[in-house]
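ugh finaly. both done.
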Amino acid sequence: MKMYKGFGENLKCHDFQYEVGQEYIHEGDVSACESGFHACENPFDVFSFYPPNQSRYCEVEGDGKKDKKNDKTSFEKIKIIMELGLGGIIQAGINFCFEKVKWTKKNSATSYKSGASATGNYSGVEFRTL
């Protein structure tokens, strides 16, 4: 399962040293927030655990037994596919969001300067001239 993982500056997570291209197997129970290899489906969720100013980010593949809790999943097996860097994890997050959108053929906001419009009472944008 394609996932995203944050690490410290040396590609470490909780004293476990990782290396790009390597696969790891956890021996024992797999429990989210407790044991196993943790990763996030939504790339933006990694920022909750690893701040952008001192972290590294990778695309990973999770496999085997798994346990999900909130925004992270623990896996029995994990493979570090590639390092993304800050720009890469942000782009992956944008792509993730766009993949979740259910696009329709219905046109909306099609008239002049209506890109940020909504219909009905209390619509999302109000333009005022001072």
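ok and the 2nd:
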Amino acid sequence: MFTQICLETIGLVLLRQGEGVTDAKEISRCLFYNSRQPLLTTSHTILEEYSAQFDHLNARWESYESWRRLGDLSSSLFALGYHQQLESSGPIPPFLRSLRQAAFACSYSADKNVSIFLGRPPRISRKFCHFRQLSLDAYYSYDWAADSQLDLFADTRWAALCAILKEEIIVELFGEERFDNRVEKASRIQNTAELQWSSLPKHFRLDMPMKSCDRSAAELDLMLGIKLNYLHVLFLQHLALVRRVSEPDTQLRNIAQEILSLVVEAVLFKDHLVHSGTSLTWKVVYYGLAAAGVICLSLLQNQYSLEHELAAAPKILRDLGVLVAEIEYGTLVYKEDANYALLAGATQTIKNILDNISRSKLDQRRLNVQAPDATAQDDPELDSASWDLWGTGNLQDFDTNFWLMLAEHPLTFNT
């Protein structure tokens, strides 16, 4: 009995450590490629074998292998009884009971997130699981002790609470044909999500810019994941209420903007984050792309409407531009990564939308400048001669005066 407990504990710890190993540093990546080069030069290595090895190394979220292993995991959880009430599962040490709870919670939330990401049905259904929410010591209770420690166990517990709501959204909202019933259920889910968020300890919630948080890199990453998980529940809940996905409403658009802003902030702040929960790439792919998709649909839908200026707020365009630049220049994901094709395709689409918006707005500004009213024609500030500041006779060093003068150009006015 003692040997079995020790082996189970070691296995769970090694499994968690293995997840962290996948986020290798740049030096490890270089060493990996250098060590892989002999595969191409050995005469005994044929092309099919090399391709199989390469595909195996890059098998990540969207691969069939990952989906199959997730199915094996769910089968093992049910076979071991982790889905049942662990509080009365016999004389086992408290630390092992906690590990089993965390293992099931992590698997349950991963099942929901991967299912949503791939658009496939979940394997672990809440109907066949025991979720107790009666007291403070209950694992799936909304209540938290004020002095709860922000660690991987707390992050896993929060992810499971959000996954429960995500399953309700998948089953009860997207599966409900009557819109009135859908609205009623969505309101209940939203109230529960907001109650769960407000019940979190204050030191768990990310309520300020990350650069202003006096927290460790690991804690900051956990707080980021907690906030994104909460916003994703609201995102899915409002998405289920949209009659046409191509016409997102204001509430859904606002949530998408908040998610995108948070993801972009994390990308810019990535050197100060430690991947203690999920990787930054997963956050961009899972949360960021969904939010960017809704925003792009909103921009396209309002392209020629009066609400276009409101929808295409400057900060939104800047966030989309930052996301495009980070992916395009390879600072976030590499070409050999399994999810590069998805990110590259989305990036190209976002880039085309931004280019079209920029060209249309710039052309409109130029038309307004070229066809001013009678009083504006005599304005010396619009005289082209007054803007010959960097000609042959007035060479500029792009110092402070240059930018001050450039800021007065009509095309730079934020109107």
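summary for the 2nd one i guess: DSSP finds 16 helices and no strands in the chain.
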